[in-house]
Amino acid sequence: xxxxxxxxxxxxxxxxxxxxxxxxxxxxxxxxxxxxxxxxxxxxxxxxxxxxxxxxxxxxxxxxxxxxxxxxxxxxxxxxxxxxxxxxxxxxxxx
Length: 95
Description:
Low-confidence stretches: 1-6
Radius of gyration: 13 Å
Largest sheet: 5 strands, antiparallel
């Protein structure tokens, strides 16, 4: 059985910030994806709700450690964040 900490994917570098994970809300698992725009002093993050299937897809598509660039992060944002229900958005705001 996988440990809880292994159920999270994230990329954080000086160029990009994105990832996914899940949390339990009212006894039900809620999956989310997040994307951040790096800035000098702080970052602007958007965290959106995704389906369990999308979560599984992300974990299969992206390795746990990746050397990502802005283009990769933009593809991730358009596919898994944009157009999904927003859970949290703001400067330095992550779930």
